[in-house]
Design a protein that fits this description.
Essential for sperm motility and is involved in the regulation of the beating frequency of motile cilia on the epithelial cells of the respiratory tract. Required for the establishment of radial spokes in sperm flagella. By secondary structure, this protein is an all-alpha fold. It is 68% helix and 3% strand. The protein is built from 13 helices and three strands. Helix 3 packs across helix 7, helix 6 packs antiparallel against helix 7 and helix 6 (121-170) packs across helix 13 (324-346).
């Protein structure tokens, strides 16, 4: 009832009964325009009343909810990114260990024991793809949330500034001309609409995150992280941030192709590298394994389409330039095959 009474009083203050006849005689477009303005003015008045502790019943504190909600969601995102990166590192390192050429007797026994638990290179490779995809989606949401946080701060500052100006304008004055105060109320309403839009967007991102979590958790391998550590030690697991940075590629490793060297992280992001920045040699050599490339040693620019390829080691780059066409064609086939295998494994 408080909301109805306050809304009615606000509407009557901007739309007296004497104006009803004029409103009814207006055409449809004029009526819509007036109703839109009335809605904004009533919203602005109620927001002002709420700030004065004299009304605003039923209005949620959206700035506070957003200021708390976004960081909490970001914290969850960061935890999930760490989890996906850790699993990707374990899967990749264990895959490489179980795929060793000419394994020793001990490694052969290890491979046999792992196979008995259904820990095979094929399953590990599919799990790397799933973990990398999950991490990619998480980072997209993280980027959106970071931008949202900046936008919210700007809206809050503008909202507070507008509210302060209204307080100065209205303070201790029995009456204020409508042409002076109405623009401020409308601006408050516009800022509030922006808060509402951000709340909807946050809800969408949170829902997407929950869906991704369910999808990823529901499709993790049936063996636990602890079980995998029976076959690999902490020291053997190589995380992305621990991967060795190599010196810039020399001409010997470039095979006559142009090599591009990013000089900053922003420039690195803007490079349109094939295979999402993963090493194409590893993708081909290990039939679909995603190994992060070392961008610091350079990116090869190949004709005729000037496509960019990156590598995890100089040796990988050297082998690639020796059989470029063969590897690129095989990579295309392997990507399709890996996608199918990953989907089949996920449905098990």
């Amino acid at each position: 009832m408080d909301v109805i009474r306050e809304t009615t009083a606000a509407l009557q203050s901007i739309f007296p009964q004497t104006d009803i006849a004029s409103f009814l005689s207006a055409n449809a477009n004029q009526k819509r325009k007036q109703l839109y303005e009335f809605t904004g003015l009533v919203t602005g008045i109620r927001l002002y009343n709420k700030d004065c502790n004299k009304g605003g019943a039923g209005i949620d504190d959206l700035p506070h909810l957003l200021s708390e909600g976004v960081p909490i969601t970001l914290e969850t995102i960061n935890e999930e990114i760490k989890k996906s990166d850790e699993l990707a590192a374990i899967y990749t390192s264990l895959f490489l260990k179980l795929s060793t050429i000419d394994p020793t007797t001990d490694v052969k026994a290890l491979i046999k024991s792992a196979k008995e638990m259904d820990i095979t290179p094929e399953h590990l490779r599919a799990s790397v793809v799933n973990a990398r995809q999950y991490g990619k989606f998480l980072r997209i949401i993280e980027c959106e949330l970071n931008q949202m946080l900046k936008d919210i701060e700007k809206i809050i500052d503008s909202f507070k500034s507008c509210m302060k100006k209204l307080h100065i304008l209205i303070s201790d004055r029995p009456a204020v001309p409508s042409n002076e105060v109405y623009p401020g109320f409308l601006q408050l309403a516009n800022y509030w609409t922006s808060f509402q839009d951000e709340m909807v967007f946050l809800s969408v991102l949170t829902s997407t995150l929950n869906t991704l979590q369910t999808y990823f958790v529901g499709r993790q391998l049936k063996w636990t992280k602890e079980q995998m550590y029976n076959f690999i030690s902490d020291k053997e697991v190589i995380f992305d941030e621990d991967r060795k940075h190599h010196d810039p590629l020399s001409e010997e490793y470039c095979g006559g192709h142009q090599c591009v060297f990013p000089h900053s992280s922003s420039e690195e992001i803007n490079l349109n590298i094939e295979c999402e920045g993963f090493c194409i040699w590893s993708l081909v050599r290990y039939q679909g394994l995603l190994v992060p490339a070392d961008i610091h040693m350079g990116v090869l620019l190949l004709p005729p389409d000037n496509k960019m390829y990156a590598f995890s080691t100089p040796e990988a780059a050297k082998e690639f330039v020796m059989e470029t066409e063969k590897m690129v064609n095989f990579m295309k086939i392997q990507v399709l095959r890996s996608t199918v295998v990953s989907k089949q494994y996920c449905t098990q």
